[in-house]
Amino acid sequence: MRNHPQFTAYAALASVCFFWGTTYLGIRMALETFPPALLVAVRFTLSGSILLIGALFMGAHIPRGRELARSAGNGILLVGLGTGGLVWAETMIPSGLAALIITISPFWMVGLDALMPPRTPLHGPTLAGMAIGLGGAALLVGPGAMAGGAAGQHLILGFCILQVGCLSWSLGSMLQRRQETKAHPIVSGGVQQLAAGLAFIPVALFLQGPVHWSTRGISATLYLVTFGSIIGYSSYVFALDRLPVAMVSLYNYLNPLVAVFLGWVFYRESFGLREAAAMLIIFTGVAVVKHAEARRRKLA
């Protein structure tokens, strides 16, 4: 197995599938200490700095000029707005529910692919898969949203914030794949994380909130820096550079399973038959979209 030419890339993908699933719980715990914008700023400024210091020590190529600007811009989209949206949403909705909602993010990727050159128009099977997945999302979010009250408002707002984050993450991912760079993918990941962290410092200063120091919150933040950002995000960038997008996107199926289980264990987040049915419907819709797009590319 280790002799497989893509063994390192698959190992990186496996770490993404597990560690990113745990970050939903890590974010909820870290929010017990830091307000959302400050958490994003602290997490990615630390992780980006550590990665780039390591790259400098190893003598790796560091992007400069236009290459640096594009990597930084991708980082603000991918890490800053993408992960930042998740962090803000988790102040309103449970971590496991956030993970399930994010599962529909491939729909944004397909939609952007239809809009950005060279445009790939949507066709029947893809639209059918998207309809199935969105039906599952409606089953997941609809009853709580229709119940009204503060909880219903938070659910709707959290869902909308997550969609903005998914759109930003998908756009950043597509731009990252199209960018020609001499830098190693992990170095690019360090640039992106540092750019996102620095971009959120003024946001954190403007949206000041209370900091409640706690051992669990600090430990969760350090966990996010180490396993969510340095190991997890670097593995994602590496796998995205080495493997087909369809293969890398498998983490969309596995992350929610890990997140839902951990959310139930640590916070007793509810997960009943309706949530399980919605999850299966969403997974089915996403699978139909991926299969339809892969088949169309093969025929083309």
From TrEMBL:
Write out the transmembrane intervals: 7-31, 37-60, 72-89, 95-115, 127-149, 155-175, 187-208, 220-238, 250-267, 273-289
Against Pfam families, the record matches this protein to: EamA
Domain EamA positions: 10-141, 158-289
Which keywords does UniProt give here? Answer: Membrane, Transmembrane, Transmembrane helix
Q: What is one term from the GO cellular component aspect held by the record?
A: membrane
Q: Where in the cell is it found?
A: Membrane
Membrane topology per the record?
Multi-pass membrane protein
| PANTHER family in alphabetical order | EAMA DOMAIN-CONTAINING PROTEIN, INNER MEMBRANE TRANSPORTER
Family, per entry: Belongs to the EamA transporter family.
Q: What is this protein called?
A: EamA family transporter
